[in-house]
């Protein structure tokens, strides 16, 4: 009887280890197909849910969720800045509004019924970040932390849009 229990446990562990290996390969394969391979790997491997993802849709949702969390943290940081050069403070007012839109776009994109609109919403988030950067540049604050934050958010947007496009191509939507 004890050997039967051991056999069941061994079999279950074998199946789980094969699933984890194949899921890690899924992340590697998907990221390899994108122009953002290193960033993609960093984002997806930073989230433990990726280990259990079975398809590109799940990976895309994870990446967009991480992007939404990052954008929320960025917006919250912008809100916390109370002193600094006038060009930065002026830029932050508009950039906070832009990041509010970015967060909504990332958070709601999977509510779309048409797959192609998911990528469109993510692209819109990137457009809002570019708008923030244009304001920052016009105010003379282009070398500030706002630009660094925008560059990271644009990477998230590019990754999310690429994953969404790959996802839509795979699903045929």
List keywords for this structure.
mainly alpha; 80% helix; single chain; 173 residues; elongated; Butyryl-CoA Dehydrogenase, subunit A, domain 3
Describe the structure.
There is one protein chain. Residues 1-22 have low confidence and may be disordered. The protein has helices spanning 2-32, 37-45, 56-80, 86-108, 115-138, 145-171. By secondary structure, it is an all-alpha fold. The chain has a single domain (2-171), classed as Up-down Bundle (Butyryl-CoA Dehydrogenase, subunit A, domain 3). It is elongated. The chain contains six helices and no strands.
Helices and strands in order, then pairings?
Layout: H1 2-32, H2 37-45, H3 56-80, H4 86-108, H5 115-138, H6 145-171
